[in-house]
Design a protein that fits this description.
301 residues, alpha/beta, Rossmann fold, 15 helices, 54% helix, globular
Length: 301
């Protein structure tokens, strides 16, 4: 796969990654790999802002709506699946586009992730049950005992990472931090990493409008359709947590909608912080990317 290129388009939620990826993929006559850890679930396209039917028709997307919210899927599986797919895409045009804001998924393909034990259902159910009954404080308390080193560096607001770390500790019998080598795996292809961004006020306004559009499109009905599955980690995400709170009667509808907007804006800021650490990322406004000639884009550094 030498001289083949993977064009990575990342950035915060709501910035316009999907539209940009479609334009680039069409220009390169290639397909899109979705690196979004929530758009993989078929039952929740509205709440995850999954590509529309028209967008899916414009360019073939991989890893969208191919799992159920009840299925387990990890960044390690994503890494393996994408690396198996890339030779087929490269054989067609020498390029592929990967688009998404889930940094763990992006890193899994670009730099690789450490080999971790497969979590058996019994362990996953135990951790999820503890979380459901006692909250994230219970998970943090256990991690303090089992892996205080990891707890010292992890974002304690990232419930998904905390749950996963505890699962690894219980499954392996070792601290999660001991298994994290951080070694970069060599890849037999070149990468061009593009981060999309825009002025904060503009981004936040786009996010607010998108949430309004989700609500109008039926987010409440979609959330009700999976409410009975709320204990699955796949639904422990912005949009559904707030709707579930509304269904539970702990907040009214207006408050739930406003909280979705606020929490999405907070998530966008966290995404920008995560991606800012990647020194290979070239930051552009969406219109700047659109103006770059495709030959120049392929050599963007």
């Amino acid at each position: 796969m030498e001289n083949n290129r993977l064009i990575v388009i990342s950035g915060p939620t709501g910035v316009g990654k999907t539209a940009a990826a479609i334009r680039v993929a069409q220009a390169l006559h290639t397909e899109i790999i979705s690196a979004d850890s929530r758009q993989i679930f078929r039952e929740i396209p509205i709440g995850t802002a999954a590509p529309t039917t028209a967008e899916l028709a414009a360019v073939k997307h991989h890893f969208v709506a191919f799992k159920s919210v009840t299925d387990y899927y990890s960044a390690a599986q994503f890494e393996s699946d994408v690396l198996s797919l890339l030779p087929q895409l490269f054989a067609k045009s020498g390029c592929a586009v990967m688009c998404g804001g889930s940094k763990l998924y992006v890193d899994a393909v670009c730099t690789g992730i450490d080999l971790m034990p497969t979590i058996i259902g019994e362990v996953r159910e135990k951790v999820q049950r503890q979380y459901n009954e006692c909250g994230i404080e219970c998970i943090i308390a256990q991690l303090e005992l089992l892996d205080s080193d990891y707890l010292a560096i992890v974002d304690k607001k990232n419930e998904k990472r905390l749950l996963h770390a505890l699962e690894i500790c219980l499954q392996s019998g070792k601290p999660y931090s001991e298994l994290r080598t951080g070694q970069v795996k060599p890849r037999p292809f070149e990468m061009v990493k593009i981060g999309l961004n825009m002025p904060r006020e503009e981004l936040f306004e786009r996010i607010n409008r998108r949430v309004d559009a989700m609500i109008e499109a039926g987010l409440e009905e979609e959330a009700r359709s999976v409410y009975h599955l709320r204990h699955y980690n796949s639904l422990n995400t912005v949009g559904f947590k707030e709707m579930f709170a509304y269904f539970d009667g702990t907040m009214d509808f207006y408050t739930a909608c406003e909280r979705i907007k606020k929490n999405t804006r907070v998530y966008a800021k966290r995404q920008l912080t995560w991606f800012a650490k990647d020194k290979d990322m070239v930051w552009l406004r969406p219109e700047e990317l659109e103006a770059i000639a495709i030959d120049d884009l392929l050599n963007l550094r």
